Structures are given as structure tokens and as C-alpha cells.
Amino acid sequence: MALLPIPRLARTVALWLALCCVATACGGAREDPAQTPAADLASQVLVLRQALAVVRPGGAGQGPAPAPAEVALPHDWDRIYPGRDGTAAYRMTFAYGGVGQDIPALYLARAANSFEMHLNGKLLAASGAMDAPVLYGGQRPLYIPVPEAMLRPDNELTITIAARANAKAGLSRIEFGPGRLVHAHYQGALWFRVIGPLVITALSLLLTAISLLIWWRQRDPLFGLYALAEIAWSVSVVERLLESAPLPLHAWQVLVLASRTVFIVATARFALIIIDVRSPWPAWLVTAFLWIKLPLIVVMTFLFNTLILKLFDWSINMLLACGIASALAWAALRRPSRERLVLAATVALASALSTADVIRIQFSNDFYWDTSLTKYVSQLFSLSMAWLLVDRYTRTISSLAELNRNLDRKVAQKEEELHLLYAHSREIEREQATLRERGRIMRDMHDGLGSTLVGALSLLRSGRGTPMVLQQHLQQALDALKLSVDAMQDTGGDLAVVLGNLRYRLRARLEAAKLQVDWQVERLPAVAGLTPQIVRELQYLLLEAFSNVMQHAGGATVQVVARSLAGTAGGAEAILIEIRDDGCGFDAHSGPQGHGLANMRNRAAAIGGELSIASSARGTTISLLLYPQRWAEGEAA
């Protein structure tokens, strides 16, 4: 199944079924010698239509032998002696004109159920046991080459048959002529009666397996009904391929007749589902058909299977076919669709072929319906059902593919909408973060700058503020204001810009404190996530460090170092900032260190950094280790 998709395989099988139907139909057209042009038969092939027959119904050896009587061929035993066994010996004479190009041969459509053939007193051919003929013995066409040594100018052909009741016993017309012509007729009959049904049965079983597999996976009643119809038809056709019944005679005949009924019912139910019949009368018609067919099967099995019963059985089948055809036609007219039109045309064609067979067979005197095409009419239903299932399957696959494409488009559209919504939400988050940062800066300006100005104003009003003290307060207020403004500017993720702005803001104060600046800031990589809050916290931290140098260190030089580090903190890239002075230093491990150093540590922790202080008599070094990756991941303020 994986190598050949189901629709393609079903189309291939349907094509083979069509070819087989054409081949068998062509073969059937050559079945009856009467249909062959008279000129060809008269000049090349001799057809034996009369024989002197000694018939013993009831079995051989019972009473004196009856007198020979002239009979017409074909001689149909079941029509003349229904329900009786017996034997019959047929004697025919024919002339032979001499050696031809082909080896002469005999063709017989039937010599049933067992036979012995003698030509000029010598055994030419035999089949089966004369004392125990099998059920289906002698039903296949026979091609018998005739040795030249056995032929004379005037020949006597004797064929003795052993007939079994209700088993299509009897003798057909006999053809004698050149082997090439006779074999062509034999080959056509073989295709029509043996090879054709065999091929059709094999293909039907293959279709059955495919349909059962689909039904097993999907539980679709259409595939179940189709598989049931194909199984039933295979059982009814296989009867023509057997020599003897695989079951007791009556049980086997019931099975064969019941399988034909099951095929008709399953086909009718299939059609009713396809056309979506909403009226209840077609279902009632199928039920009535079953109630009539069941007792009819019993009668045809255990009583005489006469021509009247066959015609009655055909009439019941045609009644159901006409009813279903009417429902199909009505549905096709009211709700036209390709499926309804196909089924309606199939039923109409099948009914026409069956009616034509009945008329033709009555005129051709074919009691056993050997030349009938009706037995192959079911292939029309098989082909139409297979096509409908393939068409419905492919349309379903196409619909599913279209649904998948629509679903993909909708999913892509929803993804795009989600991306836009996510980008919009991120934009809103950034705006809200900016607003929060601005609010935080405003609070810082209020709490820092405002409190500093209020303190200076209080000193001025009280008269206790010296010009130097007032200048310090005002300078602090101005520095806080400038740093708050710098924090709101976009630095593009460049820490060197932040450090440069801070140096520029503190230049006047550093010069006033007579401190020289040793600036050793390397080219730093741009970092993501450098928010105004981080910039503000970093500026205030470094401002506190510079203020401590200017107020308490007492040195002459302050060195600013900034460089990037690799392999720090488990392989993550880090940036190191150091503030070094050459002042007197202090004891970093003794006693309280005041609010300034504590604020520096808190600010370093807020931005995900690590602060360390080293101090000695030669100066103090404040080291700040920053991890920009944490800012990008949102782990820092």
C-alpha cells in the first residue's frame, strides 16, 4: 500500500475489470455457432446439430434399452428430465474429405457431467467417472484434436454421458474442422466461461481486500458494503470454476444462490447510501425482495430448477433493479450529481442487458444461459462502485488537503498576529518601563535634588550657612540634576559613553579638588539591556566613589580603569571598572563604614554587579564587576 496509493491501485483494478468484461463479451459473441457466418461454417467447419440418442433416465441397467431416437443438439438434460440422474448415448455421422493444412479437431461447449467419446469404435477422449459423475463435471469447453489415422471418408462419432440431476448435464452442438478455426472458437468460449470469471474473481478478491482494509480503519459503511458485494459475487462466480462442490450438494447450492442475493442487496444498499434516498419505500422494496428471495432459494435448491423458476427469479431481480433505478433517476433529477448519474446509468444498462439476454436466449434455445451476459452485469456495478469509492476517496483527500492548507494559512495568520501582538506588548512594556523610570527619576530628583535645595535654603534662612557650605549643597544638587538628565539619554549600550559623561560632569569639581585624572578606559563592547535605571544606578555608584576620593582620600591622582574580561563567572563576559586613588586609605574591615559605602554595595547588587573595596596606606581601590548578560536576560534592574 505504501508503494502504490489506494486511489491509483483501485483505478488500475477498475481498468483491468473493464478489459476483462470486453474480452469476455467478445468471447461470448463467438460462443454460439449459429452466430458465425454461414458461409465460413459451410466451407470450413462442420456443425453437428442432430444425433441418434439412447436415453436412460433413472440410471443405466434398469429395464430394456430404449430404441434410439433422433434428438436436436444441444440436448439439455435438466429441461427434459428435471431432478433425475441417467445416461445418454449419442451417435452421429459425418464425412471427412482428406488431409488439410491443419490437424482436424472437435469442439464441444459441454459434455456433462461425465463422458466417453469414441470415433469409429476407438476411444478418442473421456472425462470423469461414468458411475459417479461430479456436480460440475464437463461444464468447461472441450478442444479435442483428432488424429488423421482415426478418420475415414465416413465417420461415426459416439458420445456417452452420465448425467447428474440439476447439474446442467447434456451435450452441446459439436464442431469439426481445421484446428485453427476450431481452436479460435474454443479459445473464445474458454475466455468467456472460464478464464474471464477466474480473472474477475481474482480482481474482485483484490478489491475486497482493499475495501476491507479501508473499512477496518475507517468503519465507512460504503467500503463495507462494497467488500460484501465483491465477496458474494466471487462465491457465485467460483461455481463455474469448480469440478465438484466443496460442501454437501444442497448446502452448496443454497450458498451460491444466497451469495447472488447478498450481492444484489449489498449493491442496492450501496446505491441508496450514495444517492442519499430520503424516502422510505426503496428500503421497504429491498426488505420485500429478501422476503421473496429466501423461500425462492429453497425452492430452487430442493425442487426442480426449471426455466419457469429461472424466469421468476430474473423477474424478482428486475423488479428490484427497476425500483432502485427509479429512485436513482428521481434523485438525479431533483438533486443532480455525478454519483447519482453514474449509478442510474449503470442500473439502466444492466437492466437493458438482462432484458436483451432473456429475449435472445429464448430464441437461441440456450436453456443453461451459457451465452448470457447477465452473469457479467455485476461487473458494471463493481466498476461503478469502485469508481465511486475512488472518486469519493480522492475528493475526500483533496478536501482534507484544502482544509490543511486553509488551516496552515490560518495558523500562519494567527502566528503573525501573535508576533505583532507580542511586539506591541513589548513596545507597551518598554513604554511602561520608560514611564516607570521617568517616575523613578522624578522621585529621585525630588528626594535628592529637592532635599539638597531645601537644606541649602534652610541654612540660608537661618543665617548659619557659610558661602562654602552653600556652594557644596548647590554643587551636589546640580550634579544630581545633570546625572538624572544623562541617565534618560540613549547611550546605545556603550558603557564608555556613560563613563565619559560622568567624567565631563565632574571635571570642574575634580579640578577644584586639585585631582589629576588618569583615564584608562578601553574600547568596550556594546551591551544589550542597558536601561536608564541601570545607567542611573551606575552613575550614582561612581559619583559616590569620586565624592569619597575628593572629600576623604587626600590624594593627588585618581585613576579610572575600565576593560572587558572573558572567562569570568562560568565563562560569561564581564566588564571591570576600577576607581583608584593615592590617598591615605582607611581600614575597610574595622567598625561601621557609613551610609556611603553601604549605598554603593546596594546599587551594585541592584544592577547585578559585584563590588569590592581594597584600601591601604598607599591608597584605595574600588572594583566593580559587571555582567551585561544579566541585563539582556532581565535579571538586573
The CATH homologous superfamily of the domain at 24-189 is named Galactose-binding domain-like
pLDDT < 50 stretches: 1-10, 20-42
**What is the number of helices?**
15
Strand content: 15-25%
Briefly note the structural class of the backbone.
Answer: alpha+beta
By CATH, the topology of the domain at 24-189 is Jelly Rolls
Supply Rg. 54 Å
Oligomer: single chain
Distance between the termini: 62 Å
> Could you tell me the mean pLDDT?
78
Q: What is the approximate shape?
A: rod-shaped
Under CATH at level 1, the class of the domain at 24-189 stands as Mainly Beta
CATH architecture tag of the domain at 24-189: Sandwich
Order of adjacent strands in the largest pleated sheet: 3-2-5-11-8-9
Q: What proportion of the residues is helical, as a percent range? A: 55-70%
Tally the beta strands: 18
Major β-sheet annotation: 6 strands, antiparallel
Please, could you describe this protein's structure?
There is one protein chain. With about 625 residues, the protein is an alpha+beta fold. Among the domains are: about 25-190, Sandwich (Jelly Rolls), CATH 2.60.120; about 245-375, no CATH class; about 490-635, Histidine kinase-like ATPase, C-terminal domain (Heat Shock Protein 90), CATH 3.30.565.10. It is built from 15 helices and 18 strands. The chain has helices at about 5-30, 40-45, 75-80, 180-220, 220-240, 250-275, 280-300, 305-335, 340-365, 380-460, 465-485, 495-510, 530-555, 595-605, 630; strands at about 45-50, 50-55, 70, 75, 85-95, 105-110, 110, 115-120, 120-125, 140-145, 155-165, 170, 175-180, 515-520, 555-570, 570-580, 610-615, 620-625. The strands form 4 sheets. It has a 6-stranded antiparallel beta sheet, with no helix packed on it. The protein has a 5-stranded mixed beta sheet with strand order 14-15-16-18-17. GO terms for molecular function: protein histidine kinase activity. InterPro entries: HATPase_C_sf, HATPase_dom, Sensor_HK_TwoCompSys. Its EC number is 2.7.13.3.
